[in-house]
């Protein structure tokens, strides 16, 4: 956002900074810590990870001297360390969410159930919460936002993640009065519904990535989750279950998003979509009924119309998260949040034939993948949200490959935070569920 650099400089000159608490010192967390160490007016003062060496490594790689890293799970010691200008390494996530010195909490764990607890605890402690955990957001985001609003704090997804980058383009176009026809993202690799950590292992090794994470990209689950977050923020819906997954370059997008009766390839307007061939970018398709606007768009080399593409060719993941932290702190604004409630759902689909009594694993695993449906259709099917899947979910019957798994098909052998919060969300919003029809024209 324009001017945040100057706001941060002014804050530091006044003798204070935004104090950030981070949970999760993996790839995303490490990058964020290093980026923030370069910034004025902000610092990650405490970081939690189950592997304490991950935290110390994140700080040391960012340039923090080892003598300035205090390892503790004690709140008083942590508070004294932060006041003394040092940083805290801990294995206790609750220390991050409860520490009085922390202004904004960031969840970079990527685990839905852990993210649910972090967000819940942060909000109860009246701290802004920034989620790099889209899987948790699409499962219980509406409830967490309602809680945050009632507590006077901000619940937000992050800038730099594709949903946040899409939302920035959407807000720009919507504020200017354009008709927003479609929003979406590029997909990095061809859809492979059978991808798993074993099939992804070789490529993951070359890229220095987690095989499980890479498999979640390849099997489409991550894309479905990300576009579900955008749907819940905008009210847009998938054109069809699972979206279309067109192949195109950027120049071809305006024609694709014409309605079929007008020579295009989609059945509805106001849709979320993914495109093979434009990664790592994100896009918004806009139109206008005003002759003068169309004339100027053509003059500006934006195409012949009636659709035009606004395209951002990059997203910097957690390196942009400080922008969301600053927006929450300075302006009490979210980058992206489920403002429209539960409009879409990423539901659980069998990746292979599954047997009665078998336990499911998790996102990017061997047993299931996610697919986006409208929330109304997901509810009609009683479909199990993908964010509720973990190793404590057991099948009550055999499931065929490609079949949607329902709540009736599973039993939870151990209670979890995200299941409890999802039940609470369903109860809270049950009376407010409205059917949203796709927009034809």
TrEMBL record:
<dbReference type="Pfam" id="PF03447">
    <property type="entry name" value="NAD_binding_3"/>
</dbReference>
<dbReference type="Pfam" id="PF21135">
    <property type="entry name" value="DRL_cat"/>
</dbReference>
<feature type="domain" description="Aspartate/homoserine dehydrogenase NAD-binding">
    <location>
        <begin position="24"/>
        <end position="151"/>
    </location>
</feature>
<dbReference type="InterPro" id="IPR036291">
    <property type="entry name" value="NAD(P)-bd_dom_sf"/>
</dbReference>
<protein>
    <submittedName>
        <fullName>NAD(P)-dependent oxidoreductase</fullName>
    </submittedName>
</protein>
<dbReference type="InterPro" id="IPR048423">
    <property type="entry name" value="DRL_cat"/>
</dbReference>
<dbReference type="InterPro" id="IPR005106">
    <property type="entry name" value="Asp/hSer_DH_NAD-bd"/>
</dbReference>
<feature type="domain" description="Oxidoreductase DRL-like catalytic">
    <location>
        <begin position="160"/>
        <end position="321"/>
    </location>
</feature>
